[in-house]
Design goal:
This protein is of the alpha+beta class. The protein is built from 3 helices and 2 strands; from the N terminus they run αβααβ. Strands 1-2 form a two-stranded parallel sheet. The longest helix is centred in the last third of the chain and has 18 residues. The protein starts with 15 loop residues before the first helix and ends with a strand. About 10% of the residues are buried.
Length: about 110
């Protein structure tokens, strides 16, 4: 809610993912928006395809029309992907009536 970033670290099977789901449920009760991204689905994707995946997940979650986004354009052209992603995030933000959106990344590999 404050616009800050946080992380949860710990050993396997200690409840980290359960905490993230709990945060999502609490935000939903407060009429705030969140989206859960399992990074195991992203780890083999190139950066531009991963950004496209994020936009598609947000588009589905918030029922944004595909025609309002750049996802119809080619996210494989790496020289324009950052611009498309920025424009698409702004479009989703403007069309989201709850305004703030928490992106929850689980199983992030560094």
């Amino acid at each position: 809610m404050s616009g800050e970033n946080s992380g949860i670290f710990g050993l396997r099977k200690t409840g980290k993912t359960s905490i993230l789901y709990s945060i999502e449920r609490a935000l939903d009760r407060k009429k705030s928006s969140s989206i859960f991204i399992d990074c195991q689905t992203l780890h083999l994707k190139s950066w531009n395809v991963a950004l496209l995946f994020l936009i598609q997940e947000l588009q589905k979650k918030f029922a944004i029309k595909k025609t309002d986004l750049k996802i119809l354009e080619n996210y494989s052209r790496e020289d324009f992907v950052a611009d498309y992603f920025y424009d698409d995030l702004n479009t989703i933000y403007r069309k989201n009536d709850r305004k703030s959106i928490l992106l929850v990344f689980d199983e992030l590999k560094i």
